[in-house]
Write the structure tokens for this entry.
Amino acid sequence: MRKTILFQIVVVCLVLLGCQKENVTARQSQENKEIENLVIQVQELQNEIKGLKESDNVEEATIVKEQIITTDEFPALSQAELTNLGFTGKVDDIKEDLIRHEDIIPYKGVLGGEMHFLNDEIIVLSHEWVFAPFDDGHTGGYLLLNFEIEGGKVTQWKVLDSYLYGENE
């Protein structure tokens, strides 16, 4: 009889342990599913954010580029400054003057090329600053330039900053 009671106690204990294990396993399985769902939601939201950022940047950059490059006029304040200096020309007049001063490009051409400004990509930023891409057919870069007007004409060009592709800072 003792053996039977002992056997029954062992069986009951094993059944209780088995039930506990099943409960723990079921709880872990449910928690794992919840975690998986949350991970999927986070990934979807990250993708959505990335897509929104990319579309905003592209749209914004396109608008800014079109506004800068397609204008043949100076900003109003720059126009007033230029008028005060006696300048009566247009944006293209400043660009043409710069093109005649390609010697200010502080880099030598490579492989027989000669550095020159990319005329269609020069951007007159204001009454005193110009952004000017240049290349020699093999390599190139950008210049940020300052110009001065005296007597209604451009009298001086000064390189404020420059960058050559592949150049280490």
Q: What stands out?
A: The chain has a mean pLDDT of 79. The two ends are 91 Å apart (CA to CA).
